[in-house]
Amino acid sequence: MISVPINERQFDQLINGLSQLPAYTIGRSLDNQIVIFNSKVSGHHAQLIHCTPASFVLNDLDSKNGSFVNGVRITRKVVDKQDTLRFADTELTVDQLLALLKVDTKKPAVTPPPTPAVPKFPPKVDADSLDFTQAFADLKQVHDQYPKLRKDCRNREKMIRTGSVILSSIIGISAVLTTGGGALPFMQLMSGAGLSMLIPTLCSTILSTDEKLEIIDKEYREKYRCPNPACRDQFIPREWEQLALQKTCRRCQAIWVR
Ligand SMILES: [Zn+2]
User: Fold this and answer.
1) Distance, CA 139 to ligand 1 centroid (Å)?
2) Last residue of some domain: 66, 82, 99?
């Protein structure tokens, strides 16, 4: 990756660009990105902010008949794909809601973030099929970044200005942006290892610190697990180093370290 020196103003622009999270309005009016045909649903009923591939913030826009998450009326709440959302009496999962998203031809299409790549396994069961050494090594970043992210999260300005590990990946990305002119930092970050895909969420001005912390915790719980998809044993609160010494998963026999 080419490193391009950038000045203060460009850096601000970069951070602002980076902090733009896709947000979709939901309601009965046809000018919403997600239209629900139900007379009990308000014209502009709610807004769904897409924070990470798995985390969203649902924001009620003072609707008459309310927005609900798992049966509880909310004004604003962090949600994921396991939650059931309800607008007046229309009940939908997050996936069903996203399926209703209109493709706007005038603006560049907001592509849903790609699901993180899952390693492919040979169809036949052999010794190698339990080799998760690479995926396990990647989890060290997830483990190490988590406390740093929580700390940085409390202060957006500090988060942006300090030279944290996470920030260095922004600088790397800045080279791509300033040379390529592409405006898809969100997408580019999604493929990054560890928790770096949380950067737009952390820099965003439309989320509160508590919401950011909740999303960091959610992503950490979701990622810091045995990399074998058939197992997914939760690693929290175990330290990565301690697991590395153990070398294999006691539950599924996956090989973490050779
Ligand atoms: Zn396992």
Assistant:
1) 13
2) 99
